[in-house]
Each structure stands twice: as structure tokens, then as C-alpha cells.
């Protein structure tokens, strides 16, 4: 099944944008009368019938609307941008496929890259949402300062920190049905001051395993572990 995206559908916009229209008509060869599947990125799927197969503005009428069941937990990954932008894009793509609700890009003391195209990450997220047939588009935030994100609220807050004296694995202390926030640091890790600030604001220091992980791998591991904790 191919899934199309129209975020303004709840506001009565019954056509695909130019890119989606081109893909629908030119690439997939849909015609007037064909049934297509659309999401608004807000938790709903729509079965729609094409009323005008125009590759610039494909119009449709709604046949059926269905809601995606709401999860009883949320996953918020706050991650430092990698020096190579492709790697953080890879993280966003895979995290959306696995199931993430919010991705915040954070600026830490050892962050190597402070410029990021948020619009590009949002496009990656949309593509991953459609590919994995999800009805909700995760929120992308950034670039946020560490001092701001560390004051965020969540029912369970974790900071992944590379530390030989860090016995608590995330899988052992993540409780099901919670709103999670996990901080993932840059290649040089969080500074001692950042770690202290996080702990002072209610974060628990956690391990993601014995292997030393790249930033984007650590973010994905945390996302996967939290989803598994709720299976």
C-alpha cells in the first residue's frame, strides 16, 4: 500500500500538493476513480477516491476515515546533531519507523555541528511515516540549548552517559506506559556539568549496553528499547 500525506485534510483541503500529486499520477499511474490512502499526520487514515487525476493538483473525495489507536506512552529523544548531517537524518528516519513522538536536536558543550536544516529533517520524517504506514507525524524540534531541554517535563527522564560505573541499563528501569525523555549526547559525550545539571533536574543516568555507540546509534537503541518495554 502506498500512503500519501495531506496535513490540511482536517481543514477541508481535498487535494494533494504538487509533489504528492506528481508521485501519485506520474509515478504510480493512478487515474480518476482509483482509491488511494492518505494520512493527515495527526492520527487518522483516509480512504479516498480520485476525482481529478491532475499531476499538479490531484483532487479526491473521502470515502472512509479511521483513527489509529493511541499509544499509552510517548517517546521523546533529545539528541545532539552529528558532524555529518546524513547520520542524524538516518537517525530521524529509523526512529520514525520504529516509533518516536518527538525528536529534539540539542546543542551541548561538545556538539560539533550547530547548524541544521530542520525542514530537511521534517521531510525525512514525513517520508519515513509514509514508508512505515504510520498515521502520526512526530514533532521535530531544534536547535535547542541543553539548559532548556534539561528543564523539560516527563514521567521518566534519562540521560545516556558513557560511564564504567553506570550499572543501570535503560531496559531494566524503563516502566511501561510512561512519557519518556532521553538525552543523547555528542561524540564527546556530555560534560560533567551537563550530567550534574540533568541529575539535578530529575534525570536518571542510564546505560544502553556495553558497546560504545555512535550518537545516532545510541538514539535509535534508546527508541527501540522503550518501544520494547511497552510490547
Précis, in short:
30% of the residues lie in helices and 26% in strands. The protein contains seven helices and ten strands.
Reported by name, the CATH topology of the largest domain is Alpha/beta knot
Q: What CATH architecture label of the largest domain applies?
A: 3-Layer(aba) Sandwich
Give the low-pLDDT segments.
Answer: none
- The number of helical segments is 7
Give, in order, the helices and strands: EHEEEEHEHEHEHEHEH
Biggest sheet statistics = 6 strands, parallel
Our measurement of the CA-to-CA distance between the termini, rounded to an integer number of angstroms, reads 25 Å
Oligomer: single chain
Beta-strand percentage? 25-35%
CATH superfamily of the largest domain: SPOUT methyltransferase, trefoil knot domain
Q: Calculate Rg over CA atoms.
A: 20 Å
Spatial strand sequence of the major β-sheet: 7-6-5-9-8-10
CATH class of the largest domain: Alpha Beta
Shape descriptor: elongated
Q: Which structural class best describes the helix and strand composition?
A: alpha/beta
Task: Tell me the domain tally.
Answer: 2
The average pLDDT is 94
Per DSSP E runs of 2 or more residues, the count of β-strands stands at 10
Secondary structure: helix percent:
25-40%
Amino acid at each position: 500500500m502506498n500512503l500519501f500525506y495531506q496535513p490540511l485534510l482536517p481543514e477541508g483541503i481535498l487535494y494533494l500538493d504538487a509533489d504528492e500529486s506528481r508521485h501519485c499520477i506520474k509515478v504510480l499511474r493512478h487515474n480518476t476513480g482509483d482509491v488511494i490512502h492518505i494520512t493527515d499526520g495527526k492520527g487518522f487514515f483516509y480512504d479516498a477516491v480520485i476525482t481529478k487525476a491532475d499531476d499538479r493538483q490531484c483532487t479526491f473525495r473521502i470515502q472512509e476515515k479511521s483513527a489509529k489507536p493511541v499509544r499509552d506512552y510517548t517517546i521523546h529523544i533529545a539528541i545532539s546533531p552529528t558532524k555529518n548531517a546524513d547520520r542524524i537524518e538516518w537517525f530521524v528516519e529509523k526512529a520514525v519507523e520504529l516509533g518516536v513522538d518527538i525528536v529534539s536536536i540539542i546543542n551541548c558543550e561538545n556538539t560539533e555541528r550547530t547548524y541544521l536544516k530542520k525542514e530537511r529533517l521534517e521531510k525525512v520524517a514525513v517520508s519515513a511515516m509514509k514508508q512505515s504506514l504510520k498515521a502520526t507525524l512526530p514533532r521535530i524540534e531544534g536547535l535547542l540549548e541543553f539548559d532548556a531541554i534539561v528543564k523539560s517535563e516527563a514521567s521518566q527522564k534519562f540521560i545516556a552517559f558513557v560511564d564504567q560505573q553506570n550499572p543501570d541499563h535503560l531496559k531494566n528501569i524503563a516502566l511501561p506506559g510512561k512519557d519518556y525523555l532521553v538525552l543523547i549526547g555528542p561524540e564527546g559525550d556530555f560534560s560533567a556539568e551537563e550530567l550534574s545539571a540533568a541529575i539535578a533536574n530529575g534525570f536518571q543516568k542510564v546505560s544502553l549496553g556495553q558497546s560504545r555507540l555512535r550518537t545516532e546509534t545510541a538514539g535509535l537503541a534508546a527508541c527501540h528499547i522503550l518501544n520494547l518495554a511497552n510490547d
